[in-house]
Amino acid sequence: MRVAFHHIVLISLVLLSSCGEYEKLLKSTDYDLKKTKAREYYESGHYVRATELLTQILPRYRATEEAEDLNWINARSFYGMKDYYTAGSYFKSYIDQYPAGKYAEEATYMSALCDYNIAPRPELDQENTMNALEGFSVFISRYPSSPRVEECKRLINELKERLVEKSYLSAKLYYEMKQYKAAIVALTNSLKEYSETKYREEMMFLKLNSLFLYAENSLAIRQKERYQDTLDEYFSFMEEYPQSRFSKEVARIFQATNRFLKTGATETATND
């Protein structure tokens, strides 16, 4: 027990000594030493200390040959800390300052990767998703021979699926809130923009049912026109999905729509 205690005390003293030395370094005016230690901290994965020192010395080295490396280390350190917002801004800054720099290719990729890492789940605002898509597309355009191109394409497809899901969830929300007119518009736009989506069958069904329910709840004077729109959509749906998992519901919609258009029967309207 005594040996273990002394071991703990020794570690504590070393840590205190290390902290004390680091505090002295922060207050030091020896910028060459700070530069050297910042590199050491970066290489050993002590990113917080590296960025604290770099913040102090970067202005002094701004117009020197070492500025490019120091800016790169700073951006990489923030990425290592998983501070993707700050890292992304520094990678973009690096590209602006050194468009033909030795790290320009990697910085272009890392900038897009930062936006990718902070892109939220589909139901939230997708600005960062759009930024990441643009970033990866720019990378492919600038560096078509890079070994990272295939990875960028994979991430682009993943991000597009996120946008598809966002569009799908937004349109479905209108449907669930029984705002059928808004649902029809949203579903039409989503299907047009993301024609290959995995949600296509369900979205086409939701659009068909929205048209039907919109017609059903319309004023009598507008019903014939809206039931006709429903019938047109029914044929479009059946052409694509003749064996749909929604076949039972689709058949019901067709029968009710066809009955109205043949007999002219109307039900009590509740909404326009």
Distance between the termini: 83 Å
The main sheet comes to: none
Q: What are the secondary-structure elements, in order, as H or E? A: HHHHHHHHHHHH
* Content-based structural category: mainly alpha
Rg from Cα:
30 Å
* Low confidence ranges: 1-17, 266-272
Count of helical segments?
A: 12
Task: Give the % helix.
Answer: over 70%
Strands, total number: 0
Q: How would you state the average pLDDT, rounded?
A: 88
- What coarse outline follows from CA principal-axis ratios? elongated
- Note the beta-strand portion: under 5%
In short:
The protein is mostly helical and 272 residues long. The protein is built from twelve helices and no strands.
Strand-helix topology:
Layout: H1 2-27, H2 31-43, H3 47-57, H4 67-80, H5 84-97, H6 104-118, H7 127-142, H8 149-176, H9 180-193, H10 200-216, H11 220-240, H12 247-263
Helix pairs in contact: 2-3, 3-4, 4-5, 5-6, 6-7, 7-8, 8-9, 9-10, 10-11, 11-12
Properties at a glance:
single chain, 272 residues, mainly alpha, 76% helix, elongated, disordered N terminus, disordered C terminus
Tell me about this structure:
- This protein is mainly alpha-helical.
- The chain is 76% helix and 0% strand.
- It has 12 helices and no strands.
- Helix 3 (47-57) packs antiparallel against helix 4 (67-80), helix 9 runs antiparallel to helix 10 and helix 11 (220-240) packs across helix 12.
- The longest helix has 28 residues, at 149-176.
- The model is unreliable at 1-17 and 266-272 (pLDDT under 50).
